[in-house]
Design goal:
Helix content: under 10%
Strand order of the largest sheet: 1-30-29-28
CATH superfamily: Kelch-type beta propeller
Strand content: 35-45%
Number of strands: 30
CATH topology: Neuraminidase
Structural class: mainly beta
CATH class: Mainly Beta
Distance between the termini: 36 Å
Number of helices: 0
Radius of gyration: 18 Å
Largest sheet: 4 strands, mixed
CATH architecture: 6 Propeller
Length: about 375
């Protein structure tokens, strides 16, 4: 991710869809719901859902526009009041760094607030800096509140919420390399703690979800160091399950899980689905790539249409497929009986403004 010269390609523009894609398994009917497209194409954006006075809002923070160069990295915020026909552009995300736009941030929704963590900036000379900035966003007032900085700023991390209070930032990239840290933000105290470290190879671009006190984290990209040449990046096909101690939220009992396909994905969309007692992983690419969609091997990355579902009760995987292949995601947003991907990249690294929808009934 960071530390390599980026390659650039011409972007393809995708016209917005008024009717979202319906995704289905091979043996199930397509399901679609009507939601408006985002105001403009965006990928690698932090996403969240919040509820204010019983009204649900979808949120997209920062990300990369269709030109896919350093100028296309922005700090825009978009909000959709579910039921309305258009997204609204809100106040941009503030930054303490010289560059305001960020990629690979993560966001979570807790009650009526969204919490946005980390990410990295991209300069014209390709220098990338992991941001220490974290904010709480109120869609009600359209205001940001600065939060305590992350002890070790990370980007391309996984963010999971426990007991509607603790946000776990798992592994990720910090300026010069990956970290194995699990950093916990306490929204009540505006303070950080360290949890049991991530047991696998430190990675970036991994994905995960949490149901109850069980979390599952899969894949991503690790760093390979060589004796007489520059470091390289490699996919890491590995899944881990963690059980958070009921009496001490900083203790995580980690175990390995059998990988669903033995082939890693990069930047999947994922979330825990409480109603189905599963963790779902959707899309991603089998090729690790720079932020413009070109692989570290110089080849264009392609999206996948895979759907992995980890059944927590029965402790086994279900591997299925969806109609639309996609990649470059920072989260999978639950909405009723559906899961939503906001933006992302489709085939030929096209940055899109669409909202991709999967029915949770497809894997119950």
């Amino acid at each position: 991710m960071q530390g390599l010269t980026k390659g650039f390609i011409t972007a393809f523009t995708l016209i917005g869809f008024g009717l979202v894609f319906g995704c289905a398994t091979a043996n199930a009917k397509s399901v679609s719901v009507t939601l408006p497209p985002l105001p403009e194409p965006v990928t690698n954006n932090a996403v969240a859902r919040v509820t204010v006075d019983g009204q649900v809002y979808l949120l997209s923070f920062m990300g990369l526009g269709p030109d896919k160069d350093w100028r296309a990295v922005h700090n825009k915020t978009f909000a959709l009041k579910v039921g309305e026909t258009e997204w609204q552009q809100k106040s941009p995300v503030p930054s303490s760094l010289a560059l305001s736009g960020r990629l690979a941030s993560v966001a979570v929704g807790i009650d009526e607030h969204a919490y946005v963590f980390g990410g990295y900036t991209v300069a014209e000379d390709h220098v990338e800096i992991s941001s220490p900035d974290n904010v709480r966003y109120s869609v009600r007032s359209d205001l940001y509140t600065t939060l305590a900085p992350t002890p070790v700023p990370v980007d391309d991390a996984v963010a999971l919420v426990y007991r509607n209070r603790f946000v776990y930032l798992i592994s990720g990239w910090h300026n010069d390399g990956n970290v194995n840290l699990v950093q916990i933000y306490d929204i009540d105290k505006d303070a950080w703690q360290q949890a049991s470290p991530f047991p696998g190879a430190p990675v970036f671009g991994h994905a995960g979800g949490l149901v109850g006190n069980r979390l599952v984290v899969c894949d991503g990209v690790k760093v390979i160091y060589h004796p007489k040449k520059r470091r390289s990046f490699a996919s890491e096909p590995a899944c881990y399950q963690g059980v958070i101690d009921h009496t001490d939220h900083t203790k995580i009992n980690w175990t390995t899980l059998q990988h669903p396909t033995q082939k890693a994905r990069y930047r999947m969309a994922s979330t825990g689905v409480n109603s189905a007692n599963v963790v779902a992983f959707m899309g991603g690419s089998t090729t690790p790539y720079n932020y413009n969609g070109i692989g570290y091997n110089g080849q264009p990355a392609a999206p996948t249409n895979t759907l992995w579902v980890w059944d927590i009760a029965n402790q086994h995987w279900r591997v299925k497929s969806t109609q639309q292949a996609s990649m470059d995601h920072r989260g999978l947003v639950p909405l009723g009986d559906h899961l939503l991907i906001l933006g992302g990249m489709f085939e030929q690294q096209r940055v899109v403004d669409s909202v991709t929808v999967l029915s949770t009934k497809e894997f119950q």
